[in-house]
Amino acid sequence: MTDAAEWDAIFSGDPAVDVPQFPANPHLLELAATLPAGRALDLGCGPGTLSVELALRGWEVRGVDASPKAIEAATRHAAARGVEAAFEVGDVAYWIPLGLYDLVTSSHALPPPAHEARRAVAVAAAPVKPEGWLAITEWAPAAAETLGFAPSDLLSRTDIVAELPGFEIIRSEEISAPRPDGDGEAPALIVVAQRHPR
């Protein structure tokens, strides 16, 4: 389990040598490629790899992360790639979005314990426009022991779907994702939903 302070330690080194640049989530990029570019909100943006890739594809992007050092890394990354993206520090379970978005993504950003994770799902869902899209990738409960979580810390796909009234569930399945420590992959899940038109 990694909290904001631990992520700060990860992202506090020399950006040319020590700061990890996690690859952009391919499942989220695949979804974005099917949509017309609009406004995107990237929750748990880390060093901004997904945010930057979306910006390169014409999206107006805002990235949010609990780690100030991750936000600094994301800002440097966007500048290095020559794109404009807004980044800010925020706890995804309590951050208050301003405005509406065509696409909201949350990539392994739901914080433990489970009641905080459920709150974060609600925060992610709130700014999605009518007919807009929400995509959440997260560690599956089966990964809890491997990744150092308590079994009750991680939400199942059913738990996430239950927090999304007013959405049509387009995709809900088990996947695998690279472990944060780079040591292979761990069980994960993805839920993609579209908000009903009003």
What do you see in this structure?
The protein has about 200 residues and is of the alpha/beta class. Helices cover about 30% and strands about 30% of the residues. The protein contains seven helices and seven strands. The chain has helices spanning about 5-10, 25-35, 50-55, 70-80, 115-125, 145, 155-160, and strands at about 40-45, 60-65, 85-90, 100-105, 130-140, 165-180, 185-195. A seven-stranded mixed sheet has the order 3-2-1-4-5-7-6, with helices on both faces. β1, α3 (about 50-55) and β2 form a beta-alpha-beta unit. It is globular and about 40 Å long. Mean pLDDT is about 90; it is low at about 15-20.
SSE layout and pairing:
Blueprint: H1 4-10, H2 26-33, E1 39-43, H3 49-56, E2 60-65, H4 68-81, E3 86-89, E4 101-107, H5 114-125, E5 128-139, H6 144-147, H7 157-162, E6 167-178, E7 185-195
Parallel strand pairs: 1-2, 1-4, 2-3, 4-5
Antiparallel strand pairs: 5-7, 6-7
Strand order of the largest sheet: 3-2-1-4-5-7-6
Number of helices: 7
Q: Give start-end ranges of low-pLDDT stretches.
A: 14-20
Structural class by secondary-structure content: alpha/beta
Counted beta strands: 7
